[in-house]
Amino acid sequence: MLLVSACAISARPETAAFDLIGPKVDVRVQRGGKTLPIAEVPNLQAGDRVWVHPNLPDSQSVRYLMGIVFLRGATNPPPENWFTRVETWNKAVREEGVYVAVPDEAEEAIVLLAPETGGAFNTLRAAVRGKPG
User: Fold this and answer.
1) Of 82, 91, 89, 95, nearest in space to 128 by CA
2) Sheet of strand 108-115: strand arrangement
3) CA-CA distance, 91 to 97, in Å (whole number)?
4) 18 or 78: which carries more pLDDT confidence?
5) Residue 85 CB contacts under 8 Å (≥ 6 apart), including other chains
6) 52 against 6, higher pLDDT
7) What is the mean pLDDT of residues 77-106?
């Protein structure tokens, strides 16, 4: 009986949280002449400048496309111009990062990384616009 119980316990599905460690991405916000880490900015405001710097290793063999997207609620898809395409393999991006301005009505920002496979950015944009929440 003990053996059967032990087998049943070990056969239960794991409930561990999904944890996939990706590359480090530094994010800061410029507002009113001050630059703060994103963790110190409770809410983005129109006119803020968001600095994003992907920290990929020099040995990175896959080209990752970064999409920076602003959202405005769960049921209101963002307009096309709220998507910024960033080629992380670009030397200036690797060394300096990029700035994007927060548009009026934006409530949140997300940063997406995907392998560049030709059409990756359009796929990301279609997915976000199709299900904005």
Assistant:
1) 82
2) 83-87, 64-71, 108-115
3) 9
4) 78
5) 65, 66, 67, 121
6) 52
7) 94
When pLDDT is averaged across residues 65-80 and rounded to a whole number, the result is 90
Q: What is the pLDDT of residues 100-117, one digit of tens each?
A: 999 999 989 999 888 888
3-state secondary structure of 96: helix
Query: Which residues are CB-contacts of 131 (< 8 A; sequence separation ≥ 6)?
Result: none
**Residue of 44, 65, 43 whose CA lies nearest to 54:** 65
Q: Where are the domains of the chain?
A: 27-130
Token output for 2: 């003990």
Tell me the one-letter amino acid at 62: V
If you count DSSP H runs as helices and E runs as strands, how many of each does the chain have, helices first?
A: 3, 7
Return the closest-CA partner of residue 96 out of 48, 26, 34: 26
Cβ distance 88 to 56 under 8 Å? yes
